[in-house]
């Protein structure tokens, strides 16, 4: 009877496989928080009134959402194009010279430490099952070619996450009068960046203190410099 290997809790298995994506979403949300708050602090430093601050916050939220979403979609689409090109090249090489591709695969597993006999057997079985997929994974690290739908989801998701972050200073500009707005924005940004840093560190299994210090440092510095610029250009 074989001994079963204990499985990690589901949330930690998810974090281990998707921690990079989780950090990306939180980084985008933080960007929405910090960029919009910085713009508002700059206008506040210049003495802008309630209506101007609200307009600036709304404009920054919409422009940021479209810009970040569009950039993420473009990057995901470029990645998909690259994957398709690699797939076409590999398919052609497999058709033209399958023996050479099999030797490359055997060499790959030899470099991983397998014996020649085992490496040849593994290569033979994988090439017999799905030669294109195994070549894409071993040569390019491509496990699955992105779909058009996934590139759209990446863009829309990034835009929405950025908007959620930007919504925090936007709501401050809506509910607080301009004389209280700067302090309210700073407080809200500190609280929201603390929350996102804790969640990001937990999901990504990174060091909480360093993550928090980086986020707060960038956020506070951005707001302080923006406020100073507003004072100087007034």
Your description of this structure?
The chain starts with 9 loop residues before the first helix and ends with a helix. The protein has one domain (20-233). 29% of the residues are buried. α1 (10-45) packs across α6 (148-175) and α2 (50-96) packs antiparallel against α6 (148-175). The chain contains eight helices and no strands. It has helices at 10-45, 50-96, 98-111, 116-129, 131-140, 148-175, 178-204, 208-233. The chain has 234 residues and is mainly alpha-helical. The longest helix has 47 residues, at 50-96. The radius of gyration is 25 Å and the shape is elongated. Helices cover 86% and strands 0% of the residues.
In short:
It holds the Pfam family VIT1. This is VIT family. With 234 residues, the chain is mainly α.
Secondary-structure map:
Blueprint: H1 10-45, H2 50-96, H3 98-111, H4 116-129, H5 131-140, H6 148-175, H7 178-204, H8 208-233
Helix pairs in contact: 1-2, 1-6, 1-7, 1-8, 2-3, 2-5, 2-6, 3-4, 6-7, 7-8
Structural class: mainly alpha
Helical stretch tally: 8
Number of domains: 1
Global geometry: elongated
Largest sheet at a glance? Answer: none
* Total beta strands: 0
Pfam families: VIT1
GO molecular function: manganese ion transmembrane transporter activity
Keywords: Membrane, Transmembrane, Transmembrane helix
Membrane topology: Multi-pass membrane protein
């Amino acid at each position: 009877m074989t001994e079963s290997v204990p499985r990690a809790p589901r949330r930690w298995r998810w974090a281990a496989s998707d921690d990079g994506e989780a950090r990306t979403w939180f980084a985008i949300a933080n960007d929405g928080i910090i960029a919009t708050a910085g713009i508002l602090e700059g206008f506040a430093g210049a003495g802008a009134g309630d209506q101007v601050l609200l307009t600036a916050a709304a404009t920054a939220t919409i422009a940021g959402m479209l810009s970040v979403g569009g950039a993420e979609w473009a990057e995901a689409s470029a990645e998909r194009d690259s994957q398709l090109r690699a797939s076409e090249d590999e398919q052609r090489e497999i058709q033209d010279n399958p023996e050479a591709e099999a030797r490359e695969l055997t060499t790959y597993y030899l470099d991983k430490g397998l014996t020649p006999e085992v490496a040849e057997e593994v290569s033979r079985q994988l090439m017999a099952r799905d030669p294109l997929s195994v070549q894409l994974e071993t040569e390019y690290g491509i496990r699955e070619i992105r779909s058009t739908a996934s590139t759209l989801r990446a863009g829309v998701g990034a835009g929405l996450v950025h908007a959620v972050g930007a919504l925090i200073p936007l709501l401050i500009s809506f509910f607080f009068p301009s004389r209280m707005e700067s302090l309210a924005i700073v407080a809200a940004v500190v609280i929201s960046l603390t929350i996102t840093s804790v969640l990001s560190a937990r999901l990504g299994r990174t060091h909480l203190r360093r993550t928090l210090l980086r986020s707060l440092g960038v956020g506070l510095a951005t707001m302080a410099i923006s406020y100073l610029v507003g004072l100087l250009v007034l």
